[in-house]
Amino acid sequence: MGTGDFICISMTGGAPWGFRLQGGKEQQQPLQVAKIRSQSKASGSGLCEGDEVVSINGSPCADLTHPEVIKLMESITDSLQMLVKSRVDALFLFLEDQSHPPSLQHLLGYTSLLITTLANQLMG
């Protein structure tokens, strides 16, 4: 995973949220967004495939198994807030995979993220 920024993602209205997660403590893999369904709440939230999920509604995810995460997600009735670590290199993955072209929101978000990251590296 590339160096990324932490972003708070908020969605309301209850499930379905429109994304699928993979990983978890029992798999010895970070919890990541595996898939985002088009035209879903997740697709308009700024969440991107490959983002690492740090917390869900304030609950840290690092020590949760995948079934525990599913149980936590199923308990959320209206408002979902996720802290995620975004992938800087996800823009390049989008550009390489023309079967899933990036949305304008993703392009703008990653362009901003790349500029911020480059500025921080040049200044620091």
UniProtKB/TrEMBL annotation:
GO biological process, one term: positive regulation of actin filament bundle assembly
Keywords, alphabetical: Cell junction, Cytoplasm, Nucleus, Phosphoprotein
Gene Ontology MF terms: actin binding
Coiled coil: none
UniProt xrefs under InterPro entries: PDZ (IPR001478), PDZ_sf (IPR036034), Synaptopodin_domain (IPR051976)
CDD domains from the UniProt entry: PDZ_SYNPO2-like
Any one GO CC term of the record: Z disc
One Pfam family here: PDZ
Compartment(s): Cell junction, Focal adhesion; Cytoplasm, Myofibril, Sarcomere, Z line; Nucleus
Keyword Cytoplasm: yes
Annotated PDZ domain residues: 6-88
Keyword Ligase: no
Chief location bin: other
Domain of life: Eukaryota
Subunit structure: May self-associate in muscle cells under oxidative stress. Binds F-actin. Interacts with ACTN2; ACTN2 is proposed to anchor SYOP2 at Z lines in mature myocytes. Interacts with AKAP6, PPP3CA and CAMK2A. Interacts (phosphorylated form) with YWHAB; YWHAB competes with ACTN2 for interaction with SYNPO2. Interacts with KPNA2; mediating nuclear import of SYNOP2; dependent on interaction with YWHAB. Interacts with IPO13; may be implicated in SYNOP2 nuclear import. Interacts with ZYX, FLNC, ILK. Interacts with BAG3 (via WW 1 domain).
Protein family according to the UniProt entry: Belongs to the synaptopodin family.
Name recorded for this polypeptide: Synaptopodin-2
Source organism phylogeny: Eukaryota, Metazoa, Chordata, Craniata, Vertebrata
